[in-house]
Design brief:
about 725 residues, mainly beta, Maltoporin, Chain A, 5-stranded mixed β-sheet, 40 strands, about 60% strand
Length: about 725
């Protein structure tokens, strides 16, 4: 090793040691997960402590994580199982500067990355972070409550992804990659039992079906027969789960240069909808239970009925050693019925029913060139989706208080269709061995049609009529986004990168109830320009260090909140509220000091400020919602041998977030949540190479914390995280 390399490694080690006290509760790595890439140590460099390299496809081609100049967290399927992660909403506990919370009961996840997100429950507005499952973009936040099963890895990309991903990625992107079929026969099945009579069964089986045809079938089902909430109106426990999903993949490789993969998936969720803990100002019904956060009221039967089905066909064709073509064609269909009692009492004030039907067609075509010092990816993308919505409230008791005697129902309807097309080019040129120039550009054209949008009232005697004539509006936009960056590799195991990127989230229409048809005019695109520097280094074979610092200019930010006044009180809506500034840093350390001991620590710091406001309810200087200044996560795992045939392991993991605001419109103190930490653990034993049994616990100290706060026409409504839970899993591998 040269003196320059020795000095370089020593400096990196000193930086890692200095970072460790700050990151003492962190967990996941920008390019490795807790089990797939075990970190290693400065005191031992033998093969049993070495960190394995991880291959990612964050830039639409296979690369080592340490070669990609993007801040990311990569979680393996084993990581998800060890942490008992079952849905996208659970991922926030494993990643720094990432918040994922359900906006509406058990549904509509809001993904906020580095303070950028959209806290909206309407199904017609796109999330600020693009969510992709096997390279297929999911257009609506209503579609994000899907089960995670038979996952190879999840890549959480931070910052705007304006060239290879495009629209609606101002916050970043989350790629869920399923395990692919292979010619090797394999399979596994896991059964588990946990708190509140929770049962689950997961399985996957795959292998060769013919000399050129491989297949893989995976499924998951979860049933829970009790719940941690109590409905004081009915005396019933609420929290039952009834969800099942499956996926079939067929991969055909007739020649060495041609592969086609067909994927078909389907699933349903008929679980209970969560109860809302409401400080209802119109009645004293809830007052005796005010100090019991997990006791709430509901006059109806809160439940979900979600159904999804979809298919995709991915074709890869290598024209020669340097040029390949990829085509991804997909169709998604989603139906949603969400029944809830949002007034939290036996009264019929805000007993809601949301009905959505979503259809989506996407097509992407890419041409990739890779030769020596030049890599190019260019292509085109098209999507078309339709969303039909009918939201209604059974609310005679509220309407009579407002002087609308004789009416029992209020609601809104709309139909929205969107077409988007884009062309893009991404290039990397290594002009000298240590330096690579990165550049990308994307042109997007998008149009939306918003039809049959109106608010209706239903008399007690039956029927309904429109408050105003149905509104039809259109919106179109075109946008140029992209990235320029420079990668510097002083050694094979170290990357120093700097980039400037720009992303946008398209404008659109609010999907909430309103009495003012002018509120249904379109809002504008939001734009985000990001500057980032970072380092990824395998300081030693058993020590990985990743750090990044960033500065965002956030313009025409789209906010959802209590922005509009109406005859039934303040109504929620979405609008462009102004500009903001985001600065921050994050880092991860992965270390295996001795064989069998894995230490994973990470920390994130962000500072967010509204710099310009164009609406009365948002104050300059306010912090962005769902943006805690400090997030920490981490895990300590120790593995040891009990006998020749039995190995044991114990994992202690935790995450912390400082104070945040769920909503900053009108600066409500009720929307502030103090900082809190959650601690989880797993104790497992591997019996031979086929069996595994594990005991797990989540929220071991039974921390009470809120996951959402909403202001409604009857007062503040709160949602809480799950209490302490335990369970046991038994798995078998072929």
């Amino acid at each position: 090793m040269s003196k320059l390399e020795t000095l370089h490694r020593n400096l990196l080690l000193a930086t890692a040691v200095a970072w460790l006290p700050v990151a003492a509760n962190a967990q996941s790595s920008p390019q490795t997960g807790t089990n797939s890439t075990q970190p290693a140590v400065a005191t031992s460099t033998s093969s049993d402590t070495q960190i394995e390299s991880v291959v990612v496809t964050a830039q639409k081609r296979e690369q080592l994580g340490n070669d990609v100049g993007i801040s990311m967290n990569v979680l393996s399927g084993a990581d998800l199982k060890a942490a008992n992660i079952k849905q996208v909403v659970d991922l926030g506990s494993l990643t720094t500067n990432v918040q994922i919370k359900n906006v509406l009961g058990n549904s509509i996840p809001n993904v906020t990355i580095r303070g950028i997100g959209l806290n909206d429950y309407a199904s017609n507005n796109n999330p600020a972070a693009g969510i992709y499952v096997d390279n297929v973009y999911l257009v609506s936040p209503a579609m994000l409550s899907f089960a995670l099963f038979d996952v190879d890895r999840i890549e959480v990309l931070k910052g705007p992804q304006g060239d290879l991903y495009g629209r609606n990625t101002t916050a970043g992107a989350i790629n869920v990659i399923s395990k692919a079929p292979s010619p090797t026969t394999d399979g596994d099945v896991e059964a588990g039992y946990g708190s509140y009579q929770n049962l689950h069964l997961d399985g996957a089986f795959g292998g060769a079906l013919a000399p050129t045809l491989n297949g893989r079938l995976a499924f998951t089902t979860e049933q829970q027969f009790s719940g941690w909430q109590l409905n004081y109106v009915t005396g019933r426990r609420v929290g039952k789960i009834n969800r099942t999903a499956g996926r079939l993949q067929l991969e055909w490789t007739p020649t060495d240069s041609w592969t086609a993969r067909l994927s078909v998936h389907a699933g349903y969720d008929r679980s209970d909808e969560a109860l809302y803990k409401v400080d209802n100002v119109t009645t004293t019904q809830e007052d005796p239970f005010a100090n019991q956060p997990r006791v709430a009221g509901g006059s109806d039967d809160p439940h979900l009925n979600l159904k999804s089905i979809g298919t995709s066909l991915t074709v890869d064709w290598s024209l020669n050693d340097a040029v390949s073509v990829t085509s991804i064609s997909a169709y998604e269909h989603f139906d949603r019925i969400d029944v809830a009692d949002q007034d939290g009492t036996a009264l019929r004030q805000l007993d809601s029913t949301f009905r959505n039907t979503i259809n989506e067609v996407t097509q992407e075509l890419r041409l990739t060139y890779s030769r020596d010092t030049v890599n190019l990816i260019g292509g085109a993308y098209y999507s078309h989706d339709t969303i039909s919505d009918r939201d209604s409230y059974d609310a005679p008791d509220l309407l009579s208080l407002l002087g609308l005697v004789g009416f029992s129902t209020i609601g809104n309807t709309y139909h929205q269709s969107t077409s988007a097309a884009a062309v893009f080019l991404h290039g990397e040129w290594t002009f000298i061995p240590e330096l690579t120039l990165i550049g990308g550009i994307r042109y997007t054209d998008e149009s939306k049609r918003f039809d049959n949008a109106t608010t209706f009232l239903g008399p007690t005697s039956g029927g309904e009529f429109n408050v105003f004539s149905p509104v039809s509006n259109s919106f179109s936009t075109s946008n140029v986004s992209g990235k320029v960056g420079l990668n510097y590799k002083p050694t094979d195991d170290t990357l120093v990168y700097a980039s400037a990127s720009r992303g946008f989230k398209s404008g659109g229409f609010q999907g909430q109830l309103t009495f003012d048809p002018t509120a249904l005019k379109p809002f504008r695109d939001e734009n985000l320009t990001a500057y980032e520097v970072g380092i990824k280094s395998r300081v030693f074979p058993n020590l990985q260090l990743n750090m990044a610092a960033f500065d965002y200019e956030y313009k025409d930010a789209q906010f959802y909140g209590p922005l509009f006044d109406s005859p039934v009180g303040v109504l929620f809506g979405i609008a462009n509220v102004g500009n903001a500034r985001v600065t921050g840093a994050e880092g991860d350390v992965l270390w295996r000091p001795v064989s069998g001991l894995d230490l994973h620590f990470g920390a994130g710091l962000i500072d967010t400020r509204i710099t310009k406001s164009v609406v009365p309810g948002v104050t300059v200087g306010s912090r962005l919602p769902n943006a805690p200044k400090l997030t920490l996560n981490g895990s300590i795992k120790y593995s040891w041998s009990v006998s020749d045939d039995i190995g044991a392991d114990f994992t202690l993991a935790g995450n912390y977030q400082s104070r945040l605001a769920f909503d900053i419109v009108r600066n409500p103190p009720q929307a502030l949540e103090g900082g809190y930490a959650l601690v989880n653990a797993e104790l497992g034993a591997n019996i031979g190479d086929k069996y595994r049994v594990s005991l797990w616990g989540r929220n071991l100290f039974d921390r009470l914390y809120r996951t959402q706060a909403l202001f409604t026409s009857v007062g503040w409504s709160y949602q809480y995280g799950a209490p302490r839970t335990f369970g046991i899993n038994l798995s078998y591998r072929l």
